[in-house]
Amino acid sequence: MGDPKFSRKSYDTPSHPWQGERIKREVEIVREFGLKNKTEVWKAQTVLRNFRKQSRELQARLRGGDAQARIEADALIKKCSRMGLLPVTGSDLNDILILSEGDILSRRLQSVVFDKGLATTIKQARQLITHGHIHINGHRVTVPGYIVSREEEASVIYNDASPFTDEMHPMRISPEQAAANAAVKAEAKAKADKEMAAKAKADADEAGITLEDGGA
Length: 216
Known about the structure:
By secondary structure, this protein is mostly helical. The chain has helices spanning 20-33, 39-63, 67-82, 93-97, 101-105, 109-115, 122-130, 150-153, 175-207, 211-214; strands at 134-136, 139-140, 156-158. A three-stranded antiparallel sheet has the order 2-1-3, with helices on one face.
């Protein structure tokens, strides 16, 4: 047991420091989500890796007829649904395998603020949060990496004391720009989902995993 004053790393770093394709991809993600550094990418990848590991292990146990595995599988699916990573209904373990780090990063408060049209750019969203302009359920949250649950998403608004509550504030985003931002993000997500689904299908075929393994 470690010293409680010194918390352990909550993420895994890349196994090799110099990999051109990986570095290029990480730079694109940092730019797309307005992250401070690559550490936030590695944190998302670690969360995703853990979810996928649980999904694969549960599928193996389900094939062996483990009744407890079904309970744990339902709990994992519900957890991902509460986080906003999966639809409320109709998901299975295979859907977890096709999630990407972008799905995790899109649930960060910074991304939610930008997607809701509360900021003109993804970087401004980070600034608004750190400066205390954003409230969740009536409480100020100043952590851009805070994961917003599905229930909390509707309560993400401006702080009542913030000057951004004034619709005429010069830094407020216009409805047209908000719609344009949403369209660009939706197109990028659709492309990423398609690529990830193809990769996951290839991995599943190689591992001999079928749709029945992850189904309800």
